[in-house]
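Protein modeling request. Please complete all fields; requests missing the sequence field cannot be processed.
Requester role: graduate student
Desired output: 3D structure, token encoding
Chains: 1
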Amino acid sequence: MFVDKNGVVRRPVAYLAGPDMFWPNGMEIGAGYVELSHRYGIDGIFPPDPAREDQYREYTPADNSQEELEKKIFTHDMNQIYRSDMIIANLNDFRRGQEPDSGTAFECGAAWALGLRCYAFMEDIRPLVERFSGAKHQNLEGRWVDGQSYLIEDRGLPYNLFLGVPFTFVQGTMEDAMKRARADFDRELAAAGYLPYTPEG
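Delivered output (201 residues):
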């Protein structure tokens, strides 16, 4: 439970973002995340989950083309974000890169713009310049750059400030991020005179 924008105490809806769906067992992982969310009084939505009956309409493809299929998926996932109160994003480095999945990064920006509460989890939340595992050196100005002489941000954040500022980063797993969100919600519940939520199981 949490206190929503209207002062109503209810179960928060969380969009569970990340590249997890691309793994061979992605749907199994997603189902596990959703089940896990219920233990913490959170109503998790994994992106491919069926649309709920509400005001957000799914896209009706004009034909069977790849372009129309992509529009349908995009609309479906955005509708899942519209339905949510918060986002919990897996921002671990993706496809052997030094940055998160691009789709997840977009969803994070959309979630913040829509006023959702923003949480993210990573295995390592040290500043980007410390986590960077590729070739790096300091340039003549003493700033860290990669092997192509592109600046590596050194702001004390795990990623670019457009993720680092609006998101609460948690080192660990999806469950660790849910625990952090639960703790934040319980502090708000206590401040409003309500008892904290008791996790299930």
